[in-house]
Amino acid sequence: MVLGSFAQALGYVVTVGALAEAANHHPDIDVRYRAVTLRLSTHDASGITALDVALARRIDAATPA
């Protein structure tokens, strides 16, 4: 996701971080200036699980249009 500024990208990461903490399930997050890349997987399961899908839905709902 590319946001309007570095500050907006950091704010988005904080939002995602709060959602991840609440879910006790944490994505890999990469920030490159205004671009934020999230990677969800359940490392113990070596792939995508219901935990990833549920967190992705919460993140999508919190993502600016």
Provide keyphrases for this structure.
65 residues; alpha+beta; Gyrase A, domain 2; two-stranded antiparallel sheet; 2 helices; elongated
Task: Describe this entry's structure for a reader.
- By secondary structure, this protein is α+β, with helices and mostly antiparallel strands.
- The protein has one domain: 2-Layer Sandwich (Gyrase A, domain 2).
- The chain has a two-stranded antiparallel ribbon.
- A hairpin with a 2-residue loop joins β1 and β2.
- α1 packs across α2.
- The longest helix has 18 residues.
List the helices and strands and how they pair.
Blueprint: H1 6-23, E1 28-32, E2 35-39, H2 50-62
Antiparallel strand pairs: 1-2
Helix pairs in contact: 1-2
